[in-house]
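Example S7 (structure tokens).
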């Protein structure tokens, strides 16, 4: 069981890092989309 626990801890850490990275990129693209919409509103 010790080996299984070690594998579970490593997998949880890797999935947490992946989730944080995905949320960071999602927020970054969300901000970029808002910035792209602002100039178009001024033109219209």
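Recovered sequence:
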């Amino acid at each position: 069981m010790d080996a299984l626990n070690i594998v579970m801890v490593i997998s949880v850490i890797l999935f947490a890092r992946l989730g944080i990275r995905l949320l960071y990129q999602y927020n970054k693209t969300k901000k970029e989309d808002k910035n792209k919409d602002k100039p178009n509103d001024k033109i219209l």
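Notes on this example. Residues 1 and 7 are 10 Å apart (CA to CA).
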